[in-house]
Amino acid sequence: MGIMDGKVALVTGAGRGVGRGIALAFAKAGAAVVVNDLGVNLAGEAGESTPAKEVADEINAAGGRAVANTDSVTSAKGAQSMVQMAIDTFGRIDAVVNNAGNLRDGLFHKMTEEEFESVISVHLRGSFHVSRAAAPFFKTQASGAYVHMTSTSGLVGNFGQANYAAAKLGIVGLSKSIALDMQRFNVRSNAVAPFAWTRMIDSIPTNTPEQQRRVDGLKKLVPEKIAPFVVALASDAAAHVTGQIFGVRNNEIYLFSQPRPVRTAHTAEGWTPETVIDRVFPMFANDLYPLHRSADIFTWDPV
């Protein structure tokens, strides 16, 4: 007996890397899996391989149940199609993992509209489309779990990723709103920041010693390490866990803080620009956050 016996999971971007590990782990835990992947290369162009089918075949060959899907998360129609495939093939849907992603890195003052929109469409709009498509089924059966992939690029910050950071922090807000809106239907929603070396981040430049050190560290992060936590989070055993932000970094699991006021300033007379400058900024100075990047926070080697 597995912890996901009788359940059906949809995993987007499941043909490679983190998504592949999650799909295989769901199957191992007893779930039937819809393996979604467009099968495109890093530039978004159609490739020769069919990764979704390869993962589904691997699951079926091992005695599990899986079906491949190549719809795009960037359209509502594509999202509805992949959710309907779960219903038509396996009769229900219990877990949605919004893992599909892309990168179009570039410094903000050089970033094009296409580079920004492409990343927002896949990560943020994609997470909305797939989640929204599953919502009526979750509501009717009074159960369901969403797991959305965020990133420390949004939670903390990184150079050259304004599009990616905006999408990933937006996903945190989306996840929390879903958790609030659907808690009455016994539906849960959480966000996970995965630390993993994958094909997607293989495009990170290594033009400087600092960049090379960052990449060398990232290469130690195993994508399959993300899967056990995601499966546990989607299981009935985590029925009390919703609206949270987690991180998984090899054998480490993090619970992230969420924005709350840390200092307040008050005046009975009301504020003017001058009194804000004279009183508020000095009062808050010691608590202002520095311009950290992810690597400034996670400075130790992964374990």
Describe the protein's architecture and organization:
With 303 residues, the chain is of the alpha/beta class. The chain has one domain (8-258): 3-Layer(aba) Sandwich (Rossmann fold), CATH 3.40.50.720. The protein is 42% helix and 14% strand. The chain contains ten helices and eight strands. Helix 3 packs parallel to helix 4 and helix 4 (113-141) runs parallel beside helix 6. It is globular.
Set out the fold topology.
Elements: E1 8-11, H1 17-28, E2 32-36, H2 51-61, E3 66-69, H3 76-90, E4 95-98, H4 113-141, E5 144-149, H5 152-155, H6 162-182, E6 187-195, H7 209-218, H8 227-234, E7 245-249, E8 252-255, H9 273-284, H10 294-297
Parallel strand pairs: 1-2, 1-4, 2-3, 4-5, 5-6, 6-7
Antiparallel strand pairs: 7-8
Helix pairs in contact: 1-8, 3-4, 4-6
Family: Belongs to the short-chain dehydrogenases/reductases (SDR) family.
Protein name: SDR family oxidoreductase
Domain Ketoreductase: 7-203
